Amino acid sequence: MSLLLVAAPFVGLVLWLTARLTQRAFRNLPPGPKGLPFIGDVQHASDHGWLASPRRRDDYGELMYISALGQGILVINSQRVAVDLLEKRSNIYSDRPRYISFNEFLTENLSFVFTGYGDLWRRFRRPAVEGFSKSVVSDFYPIQSREAIMLALSLIKNPPMKKHFQRHAWSVILSINYHLPPVESEDAPVVVEIINQVQRVLHEIQPGARLVEYFPWMKYIPSRFAKWKRDAQYWFIQDSLRYERLLSKVADDLAKGIDRPSFAATVIKNQGKYRLSEREQAWLVGNMLSAGGETMSTTLHWWLLALLAHPEVQSRAYAELDEVVGCAHPPTLADLPSLPYIRAMVKEALRWSPTVPFGVPHASSADDWYEGMFIPKGTIILPNMRVINFDTAVFGADSARFNPARYLDEKGQVKVLMEGREEGHMTFGYGRRVCPGRLVAEGTLGIDFATLLWAMRFERSEAAEGELDVNTLVHSGIGAYPVPFECKAVPRFADAEALLKEALDLYE
């Protein structure tokens, strides 16, 4: 009997894999690498660098299908197909991959970004959309302006850049989500805890990180025999307690009549409408925090690399800032409508350097046919943003180049480059899974770019050698970072630092 119990899961696995392989023989799946019998193409399925390469479109076309241990993965290499599937058929392409270790144990399905398409996701989605709508985000302008000035001062005083971008990003998001005071250092305990959590997330969703994703029966192994399971359950409790503490501080303030703008306050005040438990509220607000901080920091890093590689972009930005803002005070968010090149730079930075090359993966919730090709239920869907955002038919022959002017018309005003997409790119995602915090992200980056370029110019370090590498992606989980590079910030005029300090005093 014991031998039968041990053998049963493996017999089931063989039968399941055989069924999937038989399905491929009889169904017209999209083209892709064949892989090995039974196990498929495990090597390429776990290699985001290989999957994201533009060469894959040359090899296989607009759709590429890979099977790895029975799990189907569909890479979309076309804006046309991405819209057809992820938006026009969003009713069956809005789910997320199962991620057993991450969803069922590390977060207990409370991570909004990765929550499966269903009732809980809908209850999460409503407050997220309403909490970051156009009518609300203006409440966050003082936070964004203050933080942009603090970032400029830190870069003038004390490079390197990366740690300041990280501190800045987390400070912005913590202030917007919980109305916490500015984070003084990237070593602040709350920041360290959140960064550690983000790293756990990136590890758990790394392709091939956990065998349980390929052998689901492993989730039934008792925790005492499965360290990965014990660790996940432990960190779920710790992360829950941290999110609940942060939320309770806002709730205590509201009870005392202190109502300051924050996403947490919006969620708490409308809890009757949103129908979320206290833990669900805590995880929703906390996830909007962890989802935004890392991407914002990385976008700033890519933008800085682009400025060094294209000094003419800095020059044009200086001319616009000098004409519109002058040198008597730093720019404010009220200046942004009169700074079309800066706003175009935000769009271009988000297009040119998608920090998550495949976005957050989708999953199909039903079998489907598309242009004669079969897409099985449960297929993981990866829109290849490094190809889609570089489509020459949409973005021009120089789509691989960082060029904010592509978003300007003949009069120098921001134009709509993609019908139905005000942002002019697909980095914020598709369909019902589009990022609800995109307005906050655009506003924060806009005032960041304007303030930093008003105050300083960016140059390569004297010790830097060779050409800048603007093409290589350093992958970590589902994110991608630039190759490390050196840079220095030089004030554009003698009293830049004093004027920044003077402006900061207005927000004290």
From TrEMBL:
Keywords: Heme, Iron, Metal-binding, Monooxygenase, Oxidoreductase. Heme binds at residue 435. Pathway: Secondary metabolite biosynthesis. InterPro entries: Cyt_P450, Cyt_P450_CS, Cyt_P450_E_grp-I, Cyt_P450_sf, Cytochrome_P450_fung. Transmembrane segments: none annotated. It holds the Pfam family p450. Its cofactor is heme. It comes from the Eukaryota. GO terms for molecular function: heme binding; iron ion binding; monooxygenase activity; oxidoreductase activity, acting on paired donors, with incorporation or reduction of molecular oxygen. PANTHER family: P450, PUTATIVE (EUROFUNG)-RELATED (PTHR46300:SF7), P450, PUTATIVE (EUROFUNG)-RELATED-RELATED (PTHR46300). Belongs to the cytochrome P450 family. This is Cytochrome P450. The lineage of its organism: Eukaryota, Fungi, Dikarya, Basidiomycota, Agaricomycotina.
